[in-house]
Specification:
mainly alpha
C-alpha cells in the first residue's frame, strides 16, 4: 500500500517548478517549459529517475510501518489502527506544514476533500481486509486498482503490456509465496475489502496529483490528511475506545503514522508532480516485491524459484515503465 530520503521533511519540502501532468497527459506535455532551460539527455534522465527513487523509497517506508501496525492490531483493532495512523499523521503534517486555509477556490477544497476521502477509504478498507485474509493476497487484490488505472488512462499500448506483466508477477507472488491459501479459499468479505481498497488507491493517485498542482509544497496533503483523520475517528473510537489513549499504543501509532503515512504520502505527492499517473500506478506493483525482499532479508523467509520469478516479472515491468517514460520525455 501506498509509500525515503529522510532529508526531505514536510516542513522544508522544495518548491517543485513543474506541476504533475494530469492522468490524460503524457509525461512531456503541459509543463515541459518549466525545466526546459536544462540541457540534453542528462536532465531528462535525472528528471525521470528522481520520481522513481521517491516512489521506491515510499514503498520501503511503508513496509517498516506495516511491521509496527501488526503490533498495534491486537490492542486497538483494524479501525483503531487506522485512526491512530491517520490522526497522528495529520497532526504531524499540520504542525510541520502549517498550511494556509484562505485564498483557495471551492474547486480546490473539493479536491482536498476528495483526496481525504480516498485516503480514509484506502486505509480503512485495507486494514479491514488484512484482518480477514493474509497480507499477500490482500496486497495483490489491492494492486489491481492502480494497474487498472494505468490501463484505462494510458494512451500507449506499451503501458498496457507493462501493466499486464506486473499483474502476472504479483498474482504469481501472492498465489504461491509462502505456500499460502489460494484465492479461491479467501474470505469473500476480506477479498471485497481488498478490491475496494484498490479502487480507493486508484482514486488516491488521481487526487494526489491534482492536489499537488493546486497547493504549494505539502499543504494540500496536510489538509487532506486532516479530512481523512476526521472521517476515521468515529470508527476508531467505536472499536477501540480507551485503548487508543494508552501511551504505548499512542507511541506506536505515531511511528506507524510517520513510516506509513507522512513519509510515503509526501514522497508520492512529490513524485506525482513529476511523473504521469499511469507510470506511478505501474510502479506501485513494486510493493509486493519489496515485501518479499524484506521477508527474505529481515525474517529469513526463503524464496522458491517461482517466488523469484514473480519478483523478477514485477521488477521488469517497473523498469520497462520507467524506460518508457524517460524515452518519451527525451523525444
Amino acid at each position: 500500500m501506498p509509500a525515503p530520503s529522510s532529508s526531505s521533511s514536510p516542513a522544508a519540502l522544495p518548491a517543485v517548478a513543474a506541476p504533475a501532468p494530469s492522468p490524460a497527459q503524457g509525461p512531456g506535455s503541459g509543463s515541459a517549459s518549466a525545466s526546459g532551460s536544462g540541457s540534453g539527455s542528462g536532465s531528462g534522465l535525472s528528471s525521470g529517475l528522481g520520481p522513481v527513487a521517491l516512489v521506491i523509497s515510499a514503498g520501503i517506508s511503508v513496509q517498516f510501518g506495516a511491521a509496527l501496525a501488526v503490533m498495534i492490531m491486537p490492542r486497538a483493532g483494524a479501525a483503531g489502527v487506522v485512526t491512530l495512523r491517520l490522526a497522528a499523521a495529520a497532526l504531524v503534517l499540520l504542525v510541520l506544514c502549517r498550511p494556509k486555509v484562505r485564498g483557495y477556490s471551492r474547486s480546490d477544497w473539493g479536491t482536498v476533500l476528495a483526496f481525504g476521502v480516498a485516503m480514509a477509504g484506502m486505509n480503512g478498507l485495507f486494514y479491514q481486509s488484512i484482518d480477514r485474509i493474509p497480507l499477500g493476497p490482500a496486497v495483490t487484490l489491492e494492486v489491481l486498482g492502480p494497474l487498472a488505472l494505468s490501463v484505462i488512462v494510458s494512451r500507449r499500448l506499451v503501458n498496457v503490456l507493462w501493466a499486464g506483466l506486473a499483474l502476472g508477477g504479483v498474482v504469481l507472488l501472492s498465489g504461491h509465496g509462502g505456500g499460502g491459501p489460494s484465492f479461491g479459499s479467501l474470505d469473500p468479505l476480506g477479498a471485497a475489502f481488498a478490491l475496494g481498497a484498490g479502487a480507493m488507491w486508484a482514486a488516491y493517485i488521481v487526487f494526489s496529483a491534482r492536489t499537488g498542482r493546486r497547493f504549494p509544497q505539502a499543504d494540500g496533503l496536510a489538509l487532506a490528511m486532516a479530512v481523512a483523520a476526521v472521517i476515521s475517528l468515529p470508527l476508531g473510537i467505536a472499536e477501540a475506545g480507551p485503548a487508543l489513549l494508552v501511551p504505548s499504543t499512542l507511541a506506536l501509532g505515531v511511528g506507524v503514522a510517520v513510516l506509513s503515512s507522512v513519509l510515503p504520502y509526501t514522497l508520492e505527492l512529490l513524485a506525482l508532480r513529476r511523473m504521469p499517473a499511469p507510470t506511478f500506478a505501474i510502479l506501485m506493483s513494486l510493493e509486493p516485491a519489496i515485501a518479499a525482499a524484506a521477508g527474505f532479508l529481515v525474517l529469513n523467509q526463503a524464496m522458491s524459484a517461482l517466488d523469484a520469478l514473480a519478483v523478477a516479472l514485477v521488477i521488469a515491468a517497473s523498469m520497462g515503465a520507467v524506460r518508457s517514460q524517460i524515452r518519451k520525455k527525451a523525444a
